[in-house]
Design a protein that fits this description.
binds adenosine-5'-diphosphate, binds magnesium ion, 26 helices, 12 strands, alpha/beta, 11% strand
Length: 632
């Protein structure tokens, strides 16, 4: 922390008259308090806290999967079951014990159980994920219910897993000769693992891969255009959440010392999901809050309800369900934002990371631009039909390094459709697209990005809640290498600094330096378009596709954009721009292609196009009289 932020804090504290605490300090205080009290808490409290820790561990995975990644799973309890049964079986089955016992000491059996549980979960989650995550909409949650149920019944129907009675006699964990038989002893491990998981997930979200993960919810098309393999990321996130659940199951088995199918029921899967969303899906610590709330609530209901309603029925399930209905109805955003607002009086807002002035220690991958005049992008007889509608009809066009090519035409002429054809978002019905000399048929848009194509979208696609710099850094995704594990362990800091520096550089260059750390959604629509340009530039493209970049910009901003694009052309980029502002286009473009009803009606220099009778005719009836004015 540097001097200025310390000064700011002091000033803020003085002005409000309250002592402010940083989020990290608050976390440390809570953890230290819990650790100090641990030895003195009553047996029952320790046992409840251990259970909360176990649930929270699963819920952290679900927050990542559902809250951040946008994938709903009702079946997470089944992965807890896999982790539990794996260790219970290895530790008690005579065959496994004999086989393992011949090689190592019995104290290592639980660790073999952990390994087996993780391997099984990994394989199972990868297989299930690969199949089910392709499903859209409601089919994915339904599918998770299906396999959640299947696994639950499988546990109860396997003779070697003890059927409905399950497996008893699971030994305690032994660490360094120290037996963790009591909840008080094992609880320490549970909470240590939970804190470690929170730390790792926090790190993961604060990284290159974390930005890609955040884009999975609602930004997949955009992320693919930045070079992210979103299908793969979804499966990985699913596996990660499942592994956390399996670790929880492993700890659970050694806490209870027996396992049966009941705790891995679909009910529990639903409760786990509640824990992840009740405090507001998307906040890691919300998982701990949710786990605590729901565990305590169930505990209380079991105490109170029988005396109120009689002990004949299972009323707590009903009351619990109604309560959840109320909470989700009343706090659609979850409880966390409300809590954060209250806590905001004492907790200092998270400081914005200061830009590192020093040159980053590592270099991002660099692309050398092709020589001026070389053909970068070539479309040959590209057609696109949507049912009976021909949106693009036999369009041919080339884009060369060091030129600005404009694509104009009335609304609905097929410009955006053509952009999608030449950027891999959609496949042409016929015709060929070549990028950097390579045929691109059936290639996904991330391959286009890897070959040096950067683009913006007509309908802005940003992660609105994230800062401008994070959005722009996503554009540089392919220029860095560090993966999930490195991010979780914080081994990616040098590369991350380089990414951030590059993002800041592009933001400055595009004239948005004052908004670097603002959430993207709070910018004007015109500025958001410029953020998209900065994001495309962060990928160091050789081909830049801009879909109506000047829409919503004020006069001076348009001029600045014009200057920027001329600069990029001078550097040797090939730029294809769709734009309605004729003055902007005529002054900037080297060549213009005019589309009408999906067909090219003219192509040439601005002067040639303006003199073309077909173009004049096409624009005559329309609102675009500007072109005519220019032509006269
Ligand atoms: P422009 O960008 O030039 O305004 P578009 O490329 O968006 O035009 O649209 C061209 C035509 O194709 C329009 O008639 C539009 O309604 C149609 N169109 C675009 N996308 C689709 C789609 N996914 N399905 C069906 N029709 C589409
Ligand atoms: Mg369009």
């Amino acid at each position: 922390m540097n001097n200025t932020s310390a000064d700011n804090t002091a000033a803020a504290a003085a002005s409000t008259g309250r002592a402010l605490i940083a989020p990290r300090q608050l976390t440390i205080v809570c953890v230290v308090a819990l650790a100090a009290a641990w030895g003195f808490l009553p047996e029952f409290t320790v046992s409840v806290l251990s259970n909360i820790g176990l649930y929270a561990l699963v819920a952290v995975g679900l927050v990542m999967l559902t809250g951040v990644g946008g994938m709903t799973s009702f079946g997470q309890a089944a992965f807890v079951g896999v982790g539990s049964y794996a260790t219970a079986w290895i530790c008690t089955s005579p065959a496994a014990v004999a086989w393992m016992g011949s090689m190592a000491s019995p104290a290592l059996l639980p660790w073999a159980g952990l390994l087996l549980g993780l391997l099984l979960t990994f394989a199972l989650a990868w297989a299930l994920g690969a199949v089910t995550l392709k499903l859209q909409g409601h089919y994915l949650p339904l599918c998770t219910i299906a396999w959640g149920l299947s696994l639950y019944y499988l546990f109860g129907n396997m003779d070697f897993l003890g059927g409905q009675t399950g497996i008893t006699g699971v030994p305690p964990l032994v660490v360094a000769g120290f037996s963790l038989a009591t909840p008080r002893a094992l609880g320490v491990v549970i909470w240590a693992v939970l804190l470690l998981a929170l730390w790792a997930m926090h790190n993961l979200l604060d990284s290159r891969e974390g930005r890609a993960i955040r884009a999975l919810k609602g930004g997949r098309l955009m992320a693919e255009s930045m070079g992210v393999d979103t299908a793969r990321h979804r499966v990985k996130l699913f596996v990660l959440a499942a592994l956390l659940a399996a670790v929880s199951g492993w700890l659970y088995a050694h806490l209870q010392r027996f396992v049966n199918p009941t705790p891995f029921n679909l009910n529990i899967g639903i409760e786990l999901l509640f824990m992840a969303v009740v405090s507001g899906a998307g906040h890691l610590w919300g998982a701990v809050l949710g786990a605590a709330l729901i565990t305590l609530l169930k505990e209380k209901l079991q105490d109170v309800l029988p005396s109120l309603l009689g002990s004949s029925g299972n009323f707590e399930v009903i009351v619990f369900g109604l309560l959840m209905l109320f909470v989700l109805q009343r706090f659609a955003e979850g409880l966390w934002p409300t809590l954060a607002r209250v806590a905001g009086q004492w907790v200092r807002p998270r400081p914005v990371a200061a830009a590192d002035a020093a040159a980053p220690a590592v270099q991002l991958a660099q692309r050398s631009l092709p020589p001026r005049g070389e053909v970068l992008l070539q479309a040959t007889n590209v057609s696109k039909r949507f049912g009976g509608l021909v949106a693009n009809n036999d369009i041919s066009m080339t884009l060369r390094a060091g030129e600005i090519h404009a694509l104009i035409g009335p609304n609905g002429a097929g410009k955006s459709t053509f952009f999608n054809m030449i950027s891999g978002v959609d496949d042409p019905s016929s015709g060929e697209v070549r990028l950097a000399g390579q045929p691109m048929a059936a290639k996904p848009s991330r391959v286009f990005a890897a070959l040096g194509l950067g683009r913006t979208f007509q309908h802005v696609r940003l992660l609105g809640a994230r800062s401008v710099v994070e959005n722009v850094a996503l554009g540089a995704h392919l220029r860095a290498r560090r993966g999930w594990l490195a991010a979780m362990l914080r081994l990616d800091r040098a590369e991350e600094a380089a990414l951030m520096a590059e993002a800041r550089r592009q933001i400055e260059r595009c004239g948005l330096g004052a908004h670097t750390d603002t959430p993207a959604a709070s910018l004007s629509l015109g500025q958001q378009r410029v953020v998209e340009i900065a994001r495309a530039l962060a990928g160091q493209p050789s081909v830049l596709l801009l879909d109506e970049p000047a829409a919503g910009l004020r006069h001076l901003e348009k001029r600045a954009l014009s200057v920027l694009l001329s600069q990029l052309r001078a550097e040797g980029l090939g730029i294809l721009v769709v734009e309605h502002d004729m003055e902007f286009v005529m002054n900037l473009a080297d060549r213009i292609t005019v589309l009408e009803f999906g067909t090219v009606i003219a192509t040439g220099t601005p002067a040639e196009v303006q003199a073309n009778p077909r173009v004049l005719e096409a624009y005559l009836g329309g609102a675009d009289d500007e072109l005519l004015e220019d032509a006269r």
